[in-house]
Amino acid sequence: MNSPPLLRRVGSFLLRPLDPPLLLLLGGLTLIGLLTLYSASGGSWVRWSNQLINFAVAICCMRLVAQVPPARLASVAPPLYVLGVLLLIGVAVGGEVINGARRWLDIGITRIQPSELMRLSTPLMMAWYLHRHQEDLLPRHFLIATVILALPMALILRQPDLGTALLVGAAGSFVLFLAGLRYRVIAVLGVLALAALPVVWGLLHDYQRRRVLTLLDPMQDPLGAGYHTIQSMIAVGSGGLFGKGWMQGTQSYLDFLPERHTDFIFAVFAEEFGLAGVLVMFVLMLAIVLRGLRIASQANGLFSRMMAGAVTLSFFTYVCVNIGMVIGLLPVVGVPLPLVSYGGTSLVTLGLAFGILMSVRRHRGMIGGP
Amino acid sequence: MAQRLTTLEELGREQQYQSRLQVVVVLVGIGFALLLLRLIFLQAIEHQRFHTLAESNRISIVPSAPNRGLITDRNGVVLAENTAVYTLEIDPTRVSDLPGTLDALAELVRIDEGTRKRFLQRIRETRRLGLLPVRSFLSDEEVARFTAQKFRFPGVELSTRLYRHYPFGESAAHVLGHVGRISAADKAAIETRGENDAYRGIDAIGKDGIEKTYEAELRGIAGYRKVETDASGHGVRTLSSHASVPGNRLRLAIDIRLQQVAEQAFEGRRGAAVAIEPATGDVLALVSQPSFDPNLFVDGIDVPNWRRLNDSPDRPLTNRPLRGAYPPGSTIKPFMALAGLESGLRRPQDSVFDPGWFSLPGSSHRYRCWKREGHGRVDMHVSVVQSCDIYYYSLAVDMGIQRMHDFLARFNFGVESGIDIGGERSGLNPSEAWKRARFRDRWYTGDSVSAGIGQGYMLATPMQLAYATAIFANRGVAWRPHLAKEIVDSRTGKTRVTEPQPVFETHFNEAHLDLVAAAMVAVTEPGGTAAAAFRDAPYKTAGKTGTAQVIAIKQGQTYRADAIDERHRDHAWFIAYAPAEAPTIAVAVLVENGGSGSGAAAPVARRILDQWIVGSPPADEVAP
Predict the structure, then answer these.
(1) A8 to A14, A16, A57, B74, B399: CA distances (angstroms)
(2) Is B330 a catalytic residue?
(3) Is residue A14 part of a domain?
């Protein structure tokens, strides 16, 4: 038994289908994430090791998806989409209510959040549908793609989970945009969306409105709705240029930061590593996005292009929405920071998403593929 | 590029796709730029502000209250101390089922409905504050029961706090006063004095008596700890600390044993007694009966107890020795006798005939002597010993009110004694000027007649009479009465003596003083009005009985104690000093509605003098 060759063989089997630059960048961000999570947990290994397992699962998912050609992936889209919609209906009927929202479904072994699944399967389904008509995309095809998008969005809105609904909507919009939806139509839709704002405001739940209002003036209710935003802004701002140092963040260490392992972990990072650390993280994230867009640009076939673009832009959207929320630019919505926040579902979804990107990269030369 | 571009249409689509990707790159750039700008704003430009906010989040100043200074009596017996009190506290954020927890706790510790309501109210009113007190003053038994079961109650803690405690309870309550919670009015006063910092962490303040007068000495200086706290307010670690400085120790002139003997001597009757050391002004005992338990006030008095004390017709909260102004009655006579001698209006051997009444020339109104049949021929000595009224009626008329007023002022009548606790009244030493200002009326000779036997407008507090007696015993040298004897600095251990100076000195003819003193000694000897109370005393006492009318007796009527309401009966007075040759104590005793001075007040004085001079009450109590 010669272990080094064996290890190398296993390693190369795992890594071969993966894009090295992207893998390197993702690895870098993951490292930062684990470092921050360790600090956010106050030096406890429990949550940290759980996250390692999540990463292992996510990497396996990525590896599995990466070796599947886009054509095969496309064929999975309809059943996955239908399953997702059914699960969402299931949630609406018999989901568990947590924090006043019906988001979770108990499937015996564990509880799952079907809306997470829809983040990926909705753009997948749209790409699959548009790809079938790539030769002559007519307005009605775009219309049907929009319906494909609207159905899960509506179900998720009902839960209610405005944040996820908007993120699914964003992913779908990227698909439509990259598929070549005319700017004229986009402009009209934009105007319609603006006009619909008052209506949407009327449909919002009280707590959602409060979050938006809090954004405008967090000091209005510093111990209630504004507490999260104020404390995270204090954490970020007190970090300064070079931060307080790893494991030295008083805001997180002394419990002032809420949700510091999950949605607000960026505040822990910014407090401990300062603007310098933030710049490093941003360079990594920007590089991931640019690498993803490069893969999209070189992809063959509408499905591959749309999926690569949608996955990359979803990553970008998550980053923007999460950090924007932590630093008080956007209302508080439950969106994790990709690869940094603690949580299995989000990591596995990310693994699948980047797996698709890897698959597109790996199979870019295939002609006539979907 | 590996793509195969076959048709023109495909080429167009490719161009469109690539241009869309370029748009996307621009959007991504804008997105990251926005985030970065905001982060530069937060972390570079506004960093200082957020840094300060984080620090104030993190660091809280926890004041540590100083130990209030002890108060002891003149022999070092502790009269006011600080005791640890057990308090049950709950952190509502750590207790999931609050009502259930309270129910379970109620099985171990008494938690009545009111306590429960107040606690739940407090939770609603405060946010994010950690431990909140449920009940204070847990008994040792309750502490033991809870401690054994503590594991069942996460989030419930037992804490100790120092409370002021007065071990002698009702004894000397009016001297010590009490501390109480700092009220809004106190807070405002503290603020105007600029003493905010001094009261950091202190929640009690001297409200009355010695505790109030010497507040600044007793309070001490609060220390503080800089503590790092987490979001729920729990201290995580101490960053730095400054120890508190305990308050100074106060030694009083009071002798608590004498005080207690004096209090017991009242046997439940209402009244007041003041004992002063003539040579120093030390107040040895200051009794006000009935009394109250100052411990009730320490943590805020409850409504039933307050009503009971405040609404009682016996007025236990009133400091009678200082606040009670009564007609001095016959106790004024020794001073009047001295006035007669000193003014030259009377020689010792001059006598008047007492037929039982006196009337002014040209008037039929008869001022009666307390003895209906009269004392016959009476000189100065007999007038004091027998307390003859007629002698003083004529003396007062001869002197006139102005000379009377001026002479009595030399014994500090009509002016506060200046004792070092608040609330003292000045009594009343009447004069023509006073009557004109007060009643817009002239002074009648008849007014002088009443004043001559300490009635009419004349008023004195027990404190004033004791002071006057002490001045007399000290042969004209007045030492301001004071309760605090010395202050022991808690830091240096040095002792400061509080004000033992003679405030004024009047020169009297020594022979005149001796004559009056001899008459006062005869009062307590066979034939005198207080002979019964002082039978077999192992020392010589100079004294004088007195009664103060509560209601006027009409012409031709006789005062009959049994026929009138108890509260309308005369007040009984007795003043004395002893030993007569070298006085170490001067007392004034007032028994409200006690009837006669000889029967009610003199025995109380006897027990005080016995305790002070002999050390214990005489074996067989002499009943009057």
Answers:
(1) 10, 11, 20, 93, 129
(2) yes
(3) no
